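Milestone M4 deliverable, item 7.
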Amino acid sequence: MEMVKGNRVALIGTGFVGSSYAFGLLNQGVADELVMIDLNEEKAKGDVLDLNHGKVFAANPLNIKFGTYEDCKNVDIVVICAGANQKPGETRLQLVEKNLKIFHSIVTQVVESGFDGIFLVATNPVDVLTYAVWKYSGFPKERVIGSGTILDTARFRYLLGEYFEVAPQNVHGYIIGEHGDSELPVYSSVDIGGVSVMDMIKKNPKFKQDDLDELFINVRDAAYQIINSKGATYYGIAMGLVRITKAILHNENSILTVSTLLEGEYDEKDVYIGVPAVINRRGVREVTELNLNETEKEQFHKSADVLRNILKPHF
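Output delivered:
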């Protein structure tokens, strides 16, 4: 992929997540051009008009336009937010059958356009569908990325910041694994301002492991709580997608917990799963391997098995 391209993005799917992503992209001035594509053309055209009306208030100009799959030819990133939504009481993994069919059609048309950039996938179950995009597209693994556990990690840092009364930006820790019920917190490597959380618990009786266990449950089940309250989650994940987009387009070499293909890292193979990875203009530069303890290793392998078992009947 050429490094001299402009910063152009095509968004497929202008529902709650897609339109929130577009709004975030406009406000943060990350890209130069955004093409909005949706099966419901009138909805996409309405979003384009609405967003363009706000450009006068944006810090940086963003050329926003309605488009079709043919317009993917010259963009740098195709962001896929299309697909069936998670309903109340439904797990992300129950969405597999519906969304695999939708994705086969989408990816085929994008590739036929001549697109040669990076796929960024947000639709759930994101790990399974990112694997599907990799298979359907034939692209190298570094150019097919899922949003992974970037939102779970953000929720984790936010709640840890609330608990320890520090800004979440000063909390360093990750949620890894499936973006779903089998994900896990890597408490063995969490630190706040360079101080291990495990050490803080040992030294200060007001902090307790039981509290951290409950905190993680709130992270893991946050989506269910939000879906029950308002029908869907979209602001948090949209912000996460903008963050990944920025890391790619600005060639940041930032470490973000995305869904990427493992080929021996963490002793796992042939599975897309959420792990910290270095992200730049070429996509995933490399996976960052955390030093997991034995319990975390076991949990991570179980999470990978969950995803592999879902993939088996389809690939």
